[in-house]
Amino acid sequence: MKAAAFEYQRAESVEQACAALAEHGFDAKLIAGGQSLVPMMAMRLARPALLIDINRIAELTTSSEHGDHAVLGACARQQSVKQDQRLAARVPMLRAALAWVGHIQTRNRGTIGGSLAHADPSAELPLAACVLDARIVLRKKGSTRTVAGADFFVAPMQTAAETDECLTEVHWPLWGEQRVGCAFDEVSARHGDFAMVAAAAQVQTGEDGRCTRAAFGLGGVDAVPRAFPDLAARLVGSALAAQDIEAAANTAAGEIEPGEDLHASAAYRRHLARVLVTRVLSVARDRSRVSGANAQ
Amino acid sequence: MDANPSERDARLFRYIGRQRAPKENPRFVTGRARFAADVSIPGTKHVALVASPYAHARVKSIRTGAALAVPGCRYVLTGEELCAGTNAFLIGVDAPNVKRYALANGVARYAGEWVAAVVADSRHLAEDAAELVEVEYEPLPFVVDPELSARGAAPLVHPEHGSNVLYRRKFVWGEVERDFAAADHRAELRVDWGRSATVPIETFAVVAQWNAATRLLDIWASIQMPKFPDQVAQALRLPGNAVRVHYDVDVGGSFGVKRGIKHTVLAAYLARKLDCPVRLVEDRLENMRGGDMHGPDRSFDVAVAFNADGVVKSLRIRALDDVGAYAGRSPLQLGKPVGAIVGPYRIGSVEYEPISVMTNKTPQEAVRGFGQAPTNVAIEAAMDRVAAVLKMDRAQLRRINFIRKDEFPYRIPSGSSYDSGDYHAVLDKALAAADIGELLVKRDLIRRRGGLAGIGIATCLEPSGGNSAFEPLFNPKNETTTWMDSCLVRVDLSGSITGVMNTSSSGQAHETLVATVIGEVLERDPDSIRVARADSLCALPSNSPVGSRMAIMLGGAAAGAARKIRQTLIEIAAHNLGLPAQALRYEQGDVIAAGDPGKRLAWAELVEIAHRKFHRMPPGREPGLQAQFVWEVPTGGTLPGADGRVQMYPCYSFEAHVVLVEIDPLVGRPTIRRYVCGHDCGVKINPQVVHGMTYGGIAHGIGAALFEKFAYSDEGQLLAGTFMDYLIPSAQEIPQVEIVDHCTPSPLTTFGQKGSGESGYLGSPAALVSAVNDALAPIGASLRALPMTQKAIWEAIATRTSRHRRESAAA
Q: Is residue A79 located within the same domain as residue A163?
């Protein structure tokens, strides 16, 4: 479990990082927190010829707010995002998801952008990005583009980012703080393990309790995290009663193609998908009706 | 050994049983321990390994050119060369054609078996080169199912052996047929114990150095292995005195698995061949797959005969154990449970059929309890079944069947005599501490709210004071009847005391043990006593810390040696004061005339006489102040009878577990809501150490019961080779544990102590099986295959629920 030989470069700016990516292409790999990449290198499952260290690039650690979305730099550490009170109020999904990500030791190093770029189909942050349809900003030498969360994840450990692109920031939609509830839940073998199934939901309800906006999705059940915008749209206008939620959960569970591994069969995953979607939609609904309930 | 009656009364102990911080704590807590991987010798080369990807394959050729071309790569050792230059290892059963070497001998018999070793200037380079070793394999038919192996319906793992069965015998002790025929009821059940182990943080590590001038091999290794130097010397074709094992390296966890003969033989062969120090530190992948450290993988078919009043009359146990591709000591793990085959119960007859079979999997090695924890699950599951059939309270059923405290020593049908115990008192204490009435209310409340909840009860024995009586039992050619341990105590000219032990430790706080015992006998502060370790050339005989034996055996040896010192001091004083020894008393190192406190010789004066003033020594006494004591296991020294009856370990600790488990009925996840363990290991030398072992043992047992399994695919590939798939419970999964102590001294040991190194682990898996099945009982489901993972629990629930639906629909 020693990595194969590699070169190391520290990029001082996004431009430098992009230049190095452009030069080395597939042989190069960006490293931020290294919480997934380094173990994969140690097991020689990944063997980049060049590591480009983006940890020192100041612009990648900033966060701000622009109109209808919060901007989070790719190198924001997971633990500091989890502890950010303002973000917890503005984008409650982040804290809800991060509670399930690894352990405090891994979150201290792990970054938001790193988790998205790694694109593990059972990881929590990619699911959150899909459900909220976050915008992922990719920069390369001379150009910048933005990819929707739902389009970013292509296959297990594979994203829409080209080999010369650097994920620089993530735009998280703001739903406002009133009558919005969110919930994240998952089943894993142990606390902090990869989810067998993860589910996330966010809903907004009106004064009458009826759903005005909804989003939900599942992780660990397919090649990529899955959001269900059409099923969520059908919930709008409903009272989010038990039968509304169950119908959504059943339909979603029927649409996924879960795999099988040592810890969970396809049937178990499908069952968990149904249970967890029901749970997160119910909890999100209840939280939307109690102000401040998202702050956990 | 005669016990001093005054030493028996725990209240009279000065240091034993007191709350004292273990001596080892500072170095472990401050990072000053020294492990094998910390041994740094200039010029050391590093080993990486080439492993077979096939479950069974002939090694047709190994091409090393590309590997040797890597700059810094020094050597590539093949199995062919190594096997020609070393002897096959000693094994526990009579199967001379099941040969094992450090590298595959022409045929790799499991996926992960080492077929070549690469030596380079660094571990990185060694791994680079290992990737370039080109091995041509011819895949062979293989077997992963132990039942097929047992039936002879599978490819042979070792064709020369003629069978995949390593050991099989049906023991019948007592009137089993008659008892089964006469009993009111009979029940049968199956229990499956999954392949798990202890998986210490430190993988196996060894540094070997050969000096061609002195012809001496120095070994620093993370071992816990009886007769390690002898086995290494045998395999390397060296005389025993050419191997010097340094026992003073700290071992980062073992609980049985740190055997390391193959690692050491490999590193030592290379050190000698290349004339440089060689270091082999397994990485986690090598450790999990090829480190030969998997534990028992065992299925039990149990039949139990019992009467309507709850009295259990007889047991039949067939135990099929899959030891993987080689033998080692592993088949003997079916032998140790013979010594407690009826648990703590007055069961009058037993049939026991242990079957040890080979498959194309990683070999099995000793794991905490040496086969007793799985056996305890089988026995306890049978007791729960009896209670269920009779609709009887499970605790009450156990009370009915417990050996009573006035029946000790109690000889069980298989020949072992239990030393002492008060099982009723310990169970009652545990139930009281758990507030069983309140626990039942909580369980039933969860059930009424639509949840699943169960209470688990397990009452289990921990045989301790490990001897090796299972060796002659399982191999008539082996006449081992001693499993001694020893200690040397020396007092230097300054009056400081040093206790010298003769083996390594892997976290059991033996230095605390030795210092406490010597301090107790000599009435000197244990904190002032140094404990050192002899290397194997200087050592008195030891059989290493296995079988929960060191409190008894090393403790007894240290006490024996310290008593000799005390006696010598009294005799020196008698000679110098002109008084008979009987007229003197020993007090904190000074010797004082009983009727005249003015007449005395102080510790410092006595020590000086011994070291400097031979003219004042009693005639016939050797100068200096030192004593050694080598002790045989109490009750040891006899061979098994023709019927296999044998006195196994001398002492029997007892534990009663009471747990409440809640299961999320939709997800299958079990959560432990309450955990109480009543524990009686006689007189505790250091309560902190005993509690630490018990906490760790319970956590380990929770792992075996709910999480951990070295799962294999049908193709014989290990599926759980990393910590992503081999799931060790973390602090998040382990509940708060409450330990309730009880003390029934052993009449066989120096201070009344028994063993505790396997405590907790010997009962917690049984308790969790009990709890999960109590939780599943209301829906008519059951689960007796470990680990009871979330998926397995959900499947048990789902199967039952869908059958229930079908039946309702049909009705």
A: yes
Which residue in A262, A268, A275 is closest to B725 by CB distance?
A: A262
Amino acid occupying residue B111: A
State which residues form the domain around A20: 7-53
A192 CB neighbours in chain B (<8 A) are 730, 732
Residue of chain A nearest B711, judged by CA positions: A262
Clarify whether residues A115 and A165 are in a common domain. Answer: yes
pLDDT digits (tens, 9 = 90+) for B158-198: 999 999 999 999 999 999 999 999 999 999 999 999 999 99
Question: Which of B124, B711, B798 faces A262 most closely, judged by CB atoms?
Answer: B711
Confidence of residue B723 (pLDDT cuts 50, 70, 90): very high
- Domains in chain A, number: 3
Distances (CA, A) of B187 to B18, B171, B387, B559, B631: 47, 20, 11, 49, 45
Kindly state the DSSP code that residue A102 receives in the 8-state scheme: S
Q: State the Cα–Cα distance between residues B735 and B771, nearest whole angstrom.
A: 15
Same domain, A35 and A65: no
Same domain, A163 and A71: yes
Residue A30: inside a domain, yes or no?
A: yes
Residue A138 identity (one-letter amino acid): L
Measure in Å the smallest separation between the Cα of B792 and chain A Cα atoms: 9
Q: CB of B789 within 8 Å of any CB in chain A?
A: yes
Residue numbers in B near A194 (CB within 8 A): 724
Report pLDDT digits (tens) over B326-372: 998 899 999 999 999 999 999 999 999 999 999 999 999 999 999 99
In this structure, the answer to whether residues A152 and A221 fall within a common structural domain is no
Residue ranges and CATH numbers for the domains of chain B are: 5-33+484-631 (3.30.365.10), 419-466+649-806 (3.30.365.10)
Q: Which residue of A has its CA nearest to B796?
A: A268
**C-alpha distances in angstroms, B661 versus A275, B53, B446, B772, B774?**
21, 41, 10, 7, 9
Q: Looking at the structure, do residues A86 and A39 belong to the same domain, yes or no?
A: no
* A129 and A144 inside one domain: yes
- Of the candidates B348, B400, B390, B378, the residue with the CA atom closest to the CA atom of residue B184: B390
**Tell me: the pLDDT tens digits for A250-282?**
999 999 999 999 999 999 999 999 999 999 999
The CATH number covering residue A36 comes to 3.30.43.10
Per the CB < 8 A criterion, the answer to whether B526 and B515 are in contact is yes
